[in-house]
Amino acid sequence: MRFRCSGMRAADGRFCEAAPDPVRVALGDQMVVLPVVEGNGRKLSATCQACGNAATVQICPHCHAQLPVHFGKIDTRMVAMVGAKFSGKSVYTTVLMHELIHRVGRRFDAAVIGADEETRKKFGNEERALYNEGVLPDTTRPANAGEQGRQPFVFKFSLGERKRFRSTLRHTVLSFFDTAGEDLETSRGVAQNVTYLSSADGIIVLLDPLTVPGLVQTLGIDPDVLPARSQQEAARGDSPINILTRVTELLQKLPGAGPNRMIDVPVAIAFSKVDALWEALPEDSPLRQPAPDAACFPEQDSLAVHDHVQALLLQWEGGQIDQLLHKHYRTYRYFGLSALGAVPPAKEPAQARQRVAKSGIQPHRVEDPFLWLLSRLKVIETGRG
């Protein structure tokens, strides 16, 4: 464990001055910070040898990023998110976090807060831009773009209740990392993805259903109403089966994996932008129904969505996706969601960034993949009814 000096002036007048951290600089972060203080690995504080003050802010010994309070003493779960370019990962992450804080938190009587200053600042900026200004986030930059290294969103999920003589509170630190679509196509990106996927407790693979070969024709959707980016991805042949194949090859390189072993990490296969399919689906389609509002993961409802998507995939592309998942993954589940609830209008030439639809943000089942993973990790209960 490492710490950051407090920067306070000691009784004898000594104090530490802030300067760029060489480790952070190597990752593209030029921020001026206080010096690193060595710890002994057992205590939650350390004494700065330069000024004599106590340092209590924990940082990672590898990248020197600030760690959540009580890190190492409460459950820590990492959820990785991967997918194709333009599948909507950045929008999905922001909307998911907003829903967890403002709606799902009330549903489960849970407190969901940013666990570090970087998360609180960055998420706050992206949330205001999306919900207050109505503009979509920029496309996630690849790992080799030469910019500051991307940091995960880190949240603390607190469940249970505090009673007079005892507490049943359970805290789980959740780390979300959004990788750029291009990172699955370069050797450097692949190397970095293998590193963080080896630590993931669950993976959300976000796919654009509009790029599934045969879907548009099967459902009779007018191609002119589809998002331009989905059409671009479909035209260049970057289909969901190709994305899943790359992800599977990455996971097969993890420690302990092999040609004759199933992949143990639970994987949520989430098809985004299902709002573009609603008019072509029957009214009783599980994809069009709202999620149950119980304080547990609705297993039967989720299985209905899973079976429906599975049947649709068989119609659309002959079941290639399902066969790949069935042969390589021990645990997987299909989901259909919409982060925005409506297709954004085409970007005007004078606009710097694309805007959301005039109807506003109306998310549909964005929390389902995340809650499924939490149920698999025994963080929340699973409802069987």
Structure in words:
With 385 residues, this protein is α/β, with parallel strands linked by helices. The chain contains ten helices and 16 strands. Strands 9-10-11-8-12-13-15 form a seven-stranded mixed beta sheet. A three-stranded antiparallel beta sheet has the order 4-1-7, with no helix packed on it. A hairpin with a 6-residue loop joins strand 5 and strand 6. Helix 2 packs across helix 3 and helix 7 runs parallel beside helix 9. The longest helix is centred in the N-terminal third of the chain and has 19 residues. The protein is globular, with a radius of gyration of 22 Å. The mean pLDDT is 81.
User: Which structural class best describes the helix and strand composition?
Assistant: alpha/beta
Cα shape? globular
What Rg do the Cα atoms give?
22 Å
Per DSSP E runs of 2 or more residues, the count of β-strands stands at 16
Helix content: 25-40%
- Report on the biggest sheet: 7 strands, mixed
Average pLDDT for all residues: 81
State the distance separating the first and last CA atoms.
45 Å
What is the succession of H and E elements? EEHEEEEEEHEHEEHEHHHEEHHEHE
Helices, by number, come to: 10
Unreliable stretches covering 5 or more consecutive residues: none
Going across the biggest sheet, name each strand in turn.
9-10-11-8-12-13-15
